[in-house]
Amino acid sequence: MNISRSVFLLVLALSFCVSFGALSSIFDVTSTSEDFITCLQSNSNNVTTISQLVFTPANTSYIPVWQAAADPIRFNKSYIPKPSVIVTPTDETQIQTALLCAKKHGYEFRIRDGGHDFEGNSYTANAPFVMLDLVHMRAIEINVENRTALVQGGALLGELYYTISQKTDTLYFPAGIWAGVGVSGFLSGGGYGNLLRKYGLGADNVLDIRFMDVNGNILDRKSMGEDLFWALRGGGASSFGIVLQWKLNLVPVPERVTLFMVSYTLEQGATDIFHKYQYVLPKFDRDLLIRVQLNTEYIGNTTQKTVRILFHGIYQGNIDTLLPLLNQSFPELNVTREVCQEVRMVQTTLEFGGFNISTPTSVLANRSAIPKLSFKGKSDYVRTPIPRSGLRKLWRKMFENDNSQTLFMYTFGGKMEEYSDTAIPYPHRAGVLYQVFKRVDFVDQPSDKTLISLRRLAWLRSFDKTLEPYVTSNPREAYMNYNDLDLGFDSATYEEASEWGERYWKRENFKKLIRIKAKVDPENFFRHPQSIPVFSRPLSDM
Ligand SMILES: Cc1cc2nc3c(=O)[nH]c(=O)nc-3n(C[C@H](O)[C@H](O)[C@H](O)COP(=O)(O)OP(=O)(O)OC[C@H]3O[C@@H](n4cnc5c(N)ncnc54)[C@H](O)[C@@H]3O)c2cc1C
Ligand SMILES: *[C@@H]1O[C@H](CO)[C@@H](O)[C@H](O)[C@H]1NC(C)=O
Ligand SMILES: *[C@@H]1O[C@H](CO)[C@@H](O)[C@H](O)[C@H]1NC(C)=O
Ligand SMILES: *[C@@H]1O[C@H](CO)[C@@H](O)[C@H](O)[C@H]1NC(C)=O
Ligand SMILES: *[C@@H]1O[C@H](CO)[C@@H](O)[C@H](O)[C@H]1NC(C)=O
Ligand SMILES: *[C@@H]1O[C@H](CO)[C@@H](O)[C@H](O)[C@H]1NC(C)=O
Ligand SMILES: *[C@@H]1O[C@H](CO)[C@@H](O)[C@H](O)[C@H]1NC(C)=O
Ligand SMILES: *[C@@H]1O[C@H](CO)[C@@H](O)[C@H](O)[C@H]1NC(C)=O
Ligand SMILES: *[C@@H]1O[C@H](CO)[C@@H](O)[C@H](O)[C@H]1NC(C)=O
Ligand SMILES: *[C@@H]1O[C@H](CO)[C@@H](O)[C@H](O)[C@H]1NC(C)=O
């Protein structure tokens, strides 16, 4: 099969780099990373094997290995702090050894799957750290009969989709739209995607987790208990330990689903259409999901700007069923047969993920083919439709930027209405009309530090203020997987931490996560700037 072949090729390519790296390593490693490596070697049953899986700045392949999954590439820069040692284990014993040696030698620890963390938390840190890169641990087993998948902690969404599609067109997993996103980061923050309105979040479809705790014990759902199992599905796994494998519930999809796209500018009535969208789509048949994309552009070749609003739809059924439904409740959207096509579910992932339906599906399992992005992003949730006057204010604010921003409104409702806010840590459920994701891009800039980049960042932060009256408040909800250090980090008190923690999880869930963290990792070994904090006083005192 293609995937196992490409994994094989990758391993082959890597072992080639390895011997080349060893020959050309002329630098000395620092004494501390030497201690760590000695610890690794003396706890391994095969020194040759482990040496080939460990990289320090002295190895020529260190930078390429680190860069391979540093996406958003905003952080792929020489000035970004890098790990003292990278470990790329091939089995669980090696993970255990790396963990115990990092603890013993006082390193911080970072775990990387797809490397799509918005703030680079999986591959950069402000203290000496060991990076555990799960790139070799991405086996995927699909069980069609029982509709389950076993997915190792280092797999990517694209690899999961492709592997499912090699077995069947009528099962899928309700995950995100970008092939390069890691299954582990995605699921441990909740994880939404094109099947959200029908089947809920990715994390709602996790059946079991194989997990390593801070002492190197390997646990499953039964032995970890329901509290920790709850926390790992939306609370961010990297606050608690290492996910080795996910057991997932696959969901049925039709052999052919319908894709469509229409777009309108302000001159074509986009404001009214978007205004109506807010009332109609969140309550619509849950087989339909629409992602709305908003950009600014110049009108023709003038210097006058407009907003273009693009409605990208995916319907779990055929064109003939969809058209009358939409024509009845939302004729203004003018979805006609000409803008629709029936495709396999896996092709919709291509279409939404930077490719198109003609691209061979194998591209989803090819890490180097996935486009690289460079941006700063932020999220919000809308529970009350924004009035037309508010929309016009947003458009005017958007005109102030240089067209480098994109807004995505992701329709909620449907199945999401059926979960309580405390079912898992992810609390943005019943009553949410849509999620807002806004970003400014730096792809055309050498870094996020240029004058132009800084101006875009400043615009994004001021746009947040313009949005404030129209989005949720107390707390102003934000998506943990769109982590944003502007909200605060490294907080010493609950009050400080609540500034970001209650936005990601709301108070009840955040407090529960803090209690679980205190039990599972009381020394706070698994930490990063926005990990679940450990306080010296118990929570009830606060
Ligand atoms: C281009 C792009 C598109 C996106 N699209 C979507 C989308 O459609 N839907 C959605 O919900 N989100 C989306 N996201 C957000 C995405 O879910 C998060 O960025 C997610 O954390 C990325 O996971 P990762 O494994 O790729 O990242 P990583 O940077 O590898 O990890 C993210 C976090 O998870 C931790 N982690 C990773 N692996 C493990 C493990 N095995 N055990 C414990 N902790 C682990 C890391 O330490 C880090 O804290 C998108 C992000 C980007 C950049
Ligand atoms: C990195 O360099 C060290 C020291 O030369 C060597 O032992 C090790 O095998 C190298 N690692 C890789 C992956 O090449
Ligand atoms: C260690 O592993 C290598 C392959 O990585 C193998 O060639 C060698 O025989 C092994 N050594 C021992 C002692 O098992
Ligand atoms: C990271 O930057 C280097 C140049 O510094 C570039 O060669 C490499 O392709 C980049 N990696 C990614 C993933 O963009
Ligand atoms: C599916 O589950 C049933 C019941 O647990 C089991 O008997 C059967 O072997 C499973 N099928 C496969 C293909 O794993
Ligand atoms: C811009 O538009 C005007 C009128 O629509 C046209 O005459 C002119 O050629 C255009 N200029 C360019 C550079 O396309
Ligand atoms: C919607 O239905 C009306 C009445 O049947 C019809 O005239 C119109 O063409 C339809 N519009 C679309 C976009 O299908
Ligand atoms: C609806 O879309 C069709 C093309 O799909 C187009 O011909 C028609 O003019 C549009 N109608 C309206 C009212 O925009
Ligand atoms: C589809 O994507 C491929 C690359 O994957 C590209 O070569 C082709 O031109 C695209 N086709 C269309 C219609 O955009
Ligand atoms: C993966 O994608 C890269 C970049 O597009 C391409 O060069 C390479 O041939 C692809 N590999 C496979 C196995 O398809």
From TrEMBL:
Cofactor(s) the protein requires to work: FAD
Gene3D superfamilies for this protein: 3.30.465.10, 3.40.462.20, Uridine Diphospho-n-acetylenolpyruvylglucosamine Reductase, domain 2 (3.30.43.10)
GO molecular function, one term: tetrahydroberberine oxidase activity
Signal peptide interval: 1-24
The EC number(s) this enzyme carries: 1.3.3.8
Family: Belongs to the oxygen-dependent FAD-linked oxidoreductase family.
Record-given protein name: Putative berberine/berberine-like, Aldehyde oxidase, FAD-binding, type 2
